[in-house]
Amino acid sequence: MSKQAKKPKKELTIEQKINRRNFISFASFTVLAGGAYGGWRWLYKSPEEVAGGITGGTRKPLRKALNKTELFFRRVFSDNHLVKTYPKELAVKGARVNSDIGLEAKKKFDPATWKLQVVKKGGEVLQVSLQEIMALPKTEIVYDFKCVEGWDEIQHWAGVKFIDFIKHFKLDEYIKMEYLGMETPDKAYYVGLDMPSAIHPQTLLAYEMSGKPLQLQHGAPLRLIIPVKYGIKNLKRIGTITFSNTRPRDYWAEEGYDYYSGL
Ligand SMILES: Nc1nc2c(c(=O)[nH]1)N[C@H]1C(S)=C(S)[C@@H](COP(=O)(O)O)O[C@H]1N2
Ligand SMILES: [Mo]
Questions:
Q1: What is d(CA 252, CA 191) in angstroms, rounded to the nearest whole number?
Q2: Is residue 260 part of a domain?
Q3: Is the CB of 147 under 6 A from ligand 1?
Q4: From the alpha carbon of 188, which atom of ligand 1 is closest?
Q5: Ligand 1 pocket: which of 93, 98, 241 to mutate (most atoms <8 Å of CB)?
Q6: Ligand 1: nearest atom to the Cα of 184
Q7: 206 occurs within a structural domain
């Protein structure tokens, strides 16, 4: 037999072809399913975030992915991204009341003597009265307030822009830090905020709702209105403000909610 002569290719019968195809699809399925199972096992076995940390309740690789997503959105939604606003007529008259952690009237709180506490370097505390805050330029906003629990409402708020407050009290050096923390006077509710969101032009220290003085259940004397975030970050009844380069503690992040909670 000459070397050139090729062995005649054996023609496959229809059945053989079908079998072969079945084998290939089954093999691919096994490989993919195995891969998926392996991936799941890997995730399942990977360590959980440390208990008592700033964020809570997920596997480390998932948190890594969440933090990457957060960075992506932080870059996309820089200061010049404004939340949609509406005409006043579209706002609800009495806004819904939702959740009241840190609002128990008797605990370390008397609206008459209340002062906002801003913790400065070296532990020095700047104390600001409501009168001083109300003397600053007033800013109003009508926007769609969204709660992670699945409701939203067009609400009308007024107060001082957080950035105006910073400028007036010469706190510029503090907003160079990465984070801001806020707590109720009794420290029962607390949030951590990335600085770009805190100094966003629509972020307010609010003392009015629906054109009337803020009611206690909505966070009087002063509450945070931060339209770039979900409701959970809009702390009612601000007691203390702190600045830091590490993430401040955050009530709902500790329970596994997204730390950033951006919209
Ligand atoms: N002090 C304090 N602030 C808070 C809360 C809270 O429980 N305590 N709940 C948050 C949540 S989940 C929402 S949706 C809004 C609700 O604000 P509202 O009661 O004025 O509608 O407040 C936020 N701020
Ligand atoms: Mo909420």
A1: 8
A2: no
A3: yes
A4: 1
A5: 98
A6: 1
A7: yes
Q: What is the pTM of this model?
A: 0.84
One-letter amino acid at 97 equals: V
Query: Whose Cα sits closest to atom 2 in ligand 1?
Result: 236
State both tokens at 258.
Answer: 């997204």
Place of tokens 């290719």: 9
Which range marks the domain in which residue 229 is found? 60-255
Q: Domain containing 158 — which CATH number? A: 3.90.420.10
- Whether residue 237 has its Cβ less than 6 Å from ligand 1: yes
Task: Tell me if 203 CB under 6 Å of ligand 1.
Answer: no
Ligand 2 midpoint to CA 150 (Å):
8
DSSP category for residue 193: E
Å from CA of 218 to ligand 1 middle: 7
Given a contact cutoff of 8 angstroms between Cβ atoms, the answer to whether 191 and 181 are in contact is: yes
pLDDT tens per residue across all 263 residues of the chain: 455 555 566 777 877 777 877 877 788 888 888 888 888 888 888 888 776 688 887 888 888 888 878 777 776 666 568 999 999 999 999 889 999 999 987 667 888 899 999 999 999 999 999 999 999 999 999 999 999 999 999 999 999 999 999 999 999 999 999 999 999 999 999 999 999 999 999 999 999 999 999 999 999 999 999 999 999 999 999 999 999 999 999 999 999 999 999 98
23-29-31 Cα angle (round to 5): 100
76 found inside a domain:
yes
Nearest CA to 193 out of 236, 256, 248 is that of 248
Domains identified in the chain, total number:
1
